[in-house]
Amino acid sequence: xxxxxxxxxxxxxxxxxxxxxxxxxxxxxxxxxxxxxxxxxxxxxxxxxxxxxxxxxxxxxxxxxxxxxxxxxxxxxxxxxxxxxxxxxxxxxxxxxxxxxxxxxxxxxxxxxxxxxxxxxxxxxxxxxxxxxxxxxxxxxxxxxxxxxxxxxxxxxxxxxxxxxxxxxxxxxxxxxxxxxxxxxxxxxxxxxxxxxxxxxxxxxxxxxxxxxxxxxxxxxxxxxxxxxxxxxxxxxxxxxxxxxxxxxxxxxxxxxxxxxxxxxxxxxxxxxxxxxxxxxxxxxxxxxxxxxxxxxxxxxxxxxxxxxxxxxxxxxxxxxxxxxxxxxxxxxxxxxxxxxxxxxxxxxxxxxxxxxxxxxxxxxxxxxxxxxxxxxxxxxxxxxxxxxxxxxxxxxxxxxxxxxxxxxxxxxxxxxxxxxxxxxxxxxxxxxxxxxxxxxxxxxxxxxxxxxxxxxxxxxxxxxxxxxxxxxxxxxxxxxxxxxxxxxxxxxxxxxxxxxxxxxxxxxxxxxxxxxxxxxxxxxxxxxxxxxxxxxxxxxxxxxxxxxxxxxxxxxxxxxxxxxxxxxxxxxxxxxx
Length: 578
What we know:
about 65% helix, single chain
């Protein structure tokens, strides 16, 4: 029984939650409700020391020997094979190294306010019914009361110069959070009428307003910084008075190594991404020629884009689409659905509207609140008619179906169902997740579905799947370009327009996202690693291979870095993940 490792893992994960109580609360450990992280310099120093101590203690524990099975110190880990226990150990090590690297090398507190806005999201207290609403409102009030002090710590930590694009997106997101507090959280229903409830609501409303005002003050200070950067307004943040958003080649490579276990030279990654981009462009040309020979790709894309829901019907029509896709998974026997749970389709919260759509599932350790929310971003009332049409063009019916495959069936939502309702997972596997696995799986499912009988005769859907793949190709190459090769936001915007056939507004927003999220190359990177793993697994399994069997086994580990997972799934991991 590997109790030494299990006890250490539990302690190190508890230390993680003690430092990031919002992570503990959201995963389902509600003793952390009502707390925001203490990101003061003294606490950051102490946390770095904890991480180094934890890594040293972990290195002192012998790895399990090869064998048929290794008994674990908890029911979740009982019966794991030696490769699975080694995966668990390496996953914990990478989890600690990634956090230490983020604190000491990426330093988002100093240069990337976008990385902190998520801590301020108290929407889960209202949306997720894990306790009586008055108790959840008390916890939300407690968290909201800490917002002014939290923002003061952020203010003090910011570097003298920040890049224009990161400032622009931060201003939008923090302003959106203030609106979220005032509008989205106003008048929560379901509170019983009583003098005590009135007092709870009054305290909640006062805390909401105080926090919103603090956010407005923070936004005003960010706007003052933006004015000082000067420049030509193109948001490049390069050579126009602002700081540079690029993290640099060395840091980018370390981000992939510590975050994803990927140790591939950047020049090879760039070449790989360029090849995949060209393959998808060639396939798109073939697919559009099959639909309308002689017409240009842009003409066909424009035709598809014009067939979309209205602003008013976007949400209800998305709801209607999901059941059909779900039934197809069963009809074609593509993956197990370990639960009958469904997700709710709702508008994206205002502070997250840099994304088109997103899935918000309950935490892996949540025992009571089972709601999952599929966010779809509506048009903004302040946009011009042209901007609204450009935005809705990205939700044409074919795209809406592909996006729903990615986010819901069999993408993120089904992944979540396997994590919660599949085989019991060790605690480390529930807590530590890979960006490339999570987004790579969802992106992989788009292509996978079109490769099966589901895609037969679906010419428009194939075109759309390839367009979505090209968007991710552009993210991949622009992340590398902007952060390691000097590409500007304007150049990245043109790259999205030229290679993913996007309109100006969504293309620029995609480029802006890359300035504060260099890891958004992981959609394509993860998909390519899963495709390589699938081929290697199929070769080893021979006649015993099935697509459903591969999918079920892949999702049975949680969401670990894919290079680590290869060693657990394959007898001969081969020459690497790509």
